[in-house]
């Protein structure tokens, strides 16, 4: 059944959850997108005034949602508090410093005092055609600089993310992914959130291999070594396995993948990758990937030591 507006209402008013995370996103998505994957209204007002916390994945989810609505000519308006930033961890200020409001409110941040934090690589919309240059010139440069290591030390992660953008190009509808990166120096962690609104990984796995898999099983199969549906020829067969090997097995970080109705969590247990597939509480119209890297497990490689051999 398609979504509908109450009689007499000209626009849809949606409250952003007080804590906006990948666990609380379902209500927002289901109120915005109907069962036929169409916008519920041609005009939606998103109310941020009750927001008290947002995680990096939440920023990419919101950005993908806004991009999806804009492509479909939906008027998406933002309601924000008149005053903000007084509390120590103000999520509105965090969003403003991350350039979210500048992206969707005409190019200017809410506050004249807004600035990108040194620990943040701000929200970016990256198309497949520009992804290689962005990863090489922006992501690798920022990550190496924050960790005081050589570019060669983090280039393996660039290769992993390159494959994610290959998959976005193959399977997403808009050929653009939203990426956001946050460093947590006290925890020795960096979180990378990448999301797209496409048909999703399970859809492609089931179409090309086994239609009887549920979405969690399909994600698990997609993460196995050598698995491929279709991908850019230069990276065929690398895919998610390369990402998981680098981030989880080698770095001892974690990878969390949410696509359609499936979730796959990948963790390091006794120096082996433990896969935990499960069905989600709701539907994600595309693919959301959260990568947590351990910065204390990144070895500084000198230029003389680095070799492709």
Distance between the termini: 57 Å
Q: What is the CATH architecture term of the largest domain?
A: 2-Layer Sandwich
Whole-number mean pLDDT: 87
Shape: globular
Q: Can you identify the CATH superfamily of the largest domain?
A: Histidine kinase-like ATPase, C-terminal domain
Q: What is the count of helical runs?
A: 9
The strand count comes to 10
Radius of gyration: 20 Å
| SS-derived structural category | alpha/beta
Q: SSE order, as H and E?
A: EEHEEHEHHEHHEEHHHEE
Binned, the helix content reads 25-40%
Strand arrangement within the widest β-sheet reads 6-7-8-10-9
Q: How many separate structural domains? A: 2
- Which CATH class of the largest domain applies here? Alpha Beta
In short:
This protein has 309 residues and is α/β, with parallel strands linked by helices. The protein has helices at 25-32, 56-71, 91-97, 100-104, 128-147, 151-171, 201-208, 215-222, 239-250, and strands at 12-15, 19-20, 43-47, 53-54, 75-79, 120-127, 176-184, 189-196, 254-269, 272-294.
Describe the structure.
It is built from nine helices and ten strands. About 35% of the residues lie in helices and about 25% in strands. About 40% of the residues are buried. The chain has about 300 residues and is of the alpha/beta class. The protein has two domains: about 10-115, Transcription Regulator spoIIAA (2-Layer Sandwich); about 120-309, Histidine kinase-like ATPase, C-terminal domain (Heat Shock Protein 90, 2-Layer Sandwich), CATH 3.30.565.10. The longest helix is centred in the middle third of the chain and has 21 residues, at about 150-170.
